[in-house]
Structure to design on (175 residues):
């Protein structure tokens, strides 16, 4: 591997690695088997994040498998039925607002994988943390745009921001 290629991946490794270490530390505290599943899932989302950063797209089959496993893990968390229904209702509102924004701007503001990621990861959180998670997910790229020399019209990978925010918010969600 060339040195230039390695240097290209240092910022994403730091960006994804630091929240992962916090996530790892919190999840290794107790309930070991369940938390190992959570950690493995976070590794899957990090893999998809790196793919999104490098190619601005993600492989379909791993996306579906990791999303399915995320939903299974969300079910194993055994939240109340009301919590799942509230999350579903919130997702319908969020996706409707994005659809309206797409119609108004006449652009696709998010890729189809982003919808799947949001839908999957949201069910692992308690309902009152979905808003802060999405707010953090949307704020991180804005900070990056302001600090970088990139054009504001350039496409951004959104899955890394969703993943990092999910790992950080999951530490708050930890019981």
């Amino acid at each position: 591997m060339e040195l230039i290629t390695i240097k290209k991946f240092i910022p994403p490794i730091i960006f994804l690695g630091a929240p992962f270490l916090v996530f790892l530390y919190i999840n290794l505290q107790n309930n070991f088997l369940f938390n190992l599943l959570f950690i493995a899932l976070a590794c899957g989302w990090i893999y998809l994040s790196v793919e999104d950063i490098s190619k601005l797209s993600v492989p379909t089959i791993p996306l579906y498998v990791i999303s399915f496993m995320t939903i299974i893990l969300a079910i194993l968390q055994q939240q109340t039925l009301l919590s799942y229904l509230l999350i579903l209702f919130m997702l319908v509102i969020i996706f409707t607002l994005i659809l309206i924004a797409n119609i108004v701007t006449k652009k696709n503001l998010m890729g189809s994988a982003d919808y799947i990621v949001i839908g999957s990861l949201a069910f692992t959180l308690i309902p009152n943390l979905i808003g802060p998670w999405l707010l953090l997910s949307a704020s991180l790229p804005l900070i990056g745009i302001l600090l970088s020399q990139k054009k504001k019209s350039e496409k951004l990978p959104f899955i890394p921001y969703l993943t990092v925010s999910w790992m950080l918010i999951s530490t708050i969600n930890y019981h």
In short: The chain has a mean pLDDT of 86. The chain is about 75% helix and 0% strand.
